Amino acid sequence: MDVLANFAQGFIGVFQEGGKTFVGFLSGIVPTLVTLMTAVNALVKFVGEERVNRWGEAAGRYTILRYTVMPIMAMFFLTNPMAYTFGRFLPEKYKPAFYDAAVSFCHPITGLFPHANPAELFVYMGIAQGIQQLGLSIGGLAVRYFIVGIIVIFIRGVVTERLTLRMMRQQGIEI
Predict the structure, then answer these.
(1) How many Å apart are CA 101 and CA 144, to the nearest integer?
(2) Burial 121-134 (b: 16+ CB within 10 A, else e)
(3) pTM of the full predicted structure?
């Protein structure tokens, strides 16, 4: 009987701890995220959608910008999952590679700009908690994570672009 009671108490304890964590996020990070999202949306409105469109088409012409600056700006301004719509500035042959780069940047941007992908914040905060317990700065972690993320998205974008173009040629699709 005690085993069943202990199991039931442990089972509900998991949800009670989850509730405490949820309330912590609700009173801590959620207001920050809402404020950041509002500010980013206001900035896009101030700059103007036409200017944003012209910038995207110009940046899409260059490989290095297509797989570094564009995914970073897309994640920062449009956040996940809207960031993938930045692919509309690109010819069809580059869209798979852009998507690969953008989706690969969902996690690395979170440490510096949590509004970009709040769903990944839970993962990042778990890692950051371990870093803090070691007595290290999470600011340094966020910057390093961001820089490594840029390198990774560039590599992934270039590799995926080459694979896409090769597969298109093999299937006789006009490039």
Answers:
(1) 18
(2) beebbeebeeeeee
(3) 0.70
